[in-house]
Amino acid sequence: MHLNGIRKKRILIIGSNGMLGQRLVEFFLKRPEFELFCASFEDESFIQNVDYTKIDIGIKSEVKSLLNSFFPDFIINSAAFTNVDKNETDKESAWRINVTSVEYLAKYALALDAHLIHFSTDYIFDGAKGPYKEGDTPNPVSYYGRSKLASENAIKTTFDNYTIFRINVLYGPALYGKLDFVRWVVDKLSKNEPIRIVDDQFNNPSFTEDIAEAVFSSIENNISGIFNIGGKELLNRYEFTKRIADYFDLDKTLITPIKSDELEWLAVRPLNSGLLNHKAESELDYKPHSLEETFGIIKQIALK
Ligand SMILES: NC(=O)c1ccc[n+]([C@@H]2O[C@H](COP(=O)([O-])OP(=O)(O)OC[C@H]3O[C@@H](n4cnc5c(N)ncnc54)[C@H](OP(=O)(O)O)[C@@H]3O)[C@@H](O)[C@H]2O)c1
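^ inputs. structure came back:
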């Protein structure tokens, strides 16, 4: 398809029904210079009026036939097995979805000369001394972290035509599927339910709209490589929760600070984590919203 005589760039979004995937679909749907095709695990697309197919990216023949039918210029892979604790108990699925599928995507992207955009995580680090730069040495402490690091390596050892965005504590106004952390807090506190939140885990949470802007910038400017895409502020989860309560005018006395080791999580989480954004700021003109701005956007879109 063409726009003003110019062939539209073809973008394939895989994992389009996920928290990040939904916002990427909405972002690119608004831009007529792109031809969009979406794929995810469910029978139907959560977002209406998009070209969509169901796919299991862990099945090589399904990946091959999807790519050969659409011939994308860009493949954006936001599909993953994201439940960190379930990664510990179902390692086979974790590896199949987080690593083997990415090997397939990289292999077919190479064959088609397509650019692969992939998402990774601060969980590739151990959390001993974050926030982290792109070049810091990974040392994952969970199976999820190991699988995501392996996904990065699968891409890097296949070709150079990729952009990997590392993000941490994803949040944003996806209208379908699981609630993000902000809306979970708002939901609990609005019902006057007490919540216990760790105060020893530090991150700079990544906002879906900011990530979409960074992806767009990398496409527009033909930029490859690895980029951290964190939020503007580094803070612990308890402080983050209090900021949410303040913004939405909810009762902060319902929030009790606790330590991570009081929770019976199966997977170890990096504690002093977070992602330094300097590279994205200088090469992608990345300008994350402030926390309060992100809460305002969530309120407008998903908490009307
Ligand atoms: N969430 C975070 O805090 C966070 C932090 C750092 C990095 N990341 C990374 O950011 C990316 C997006 O995360 P997210 O939170 O948006 O994930 P998400 O909401 O869990 O979405 C992932 C999507 O992939 C789909 N999917 C799972 N297995 C699939 C398969 N075999 N074939 C096709 N689709 C499949 C899921 O479907 P079902 O829902 O039906 O399984 C879901 O629609 C991931 O790469 C993740 O590792 C996330």
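The mean pLDDT is 97. The chain has one domain: 8-178+205-233+273-289.
thumbs up if we can close this ticket
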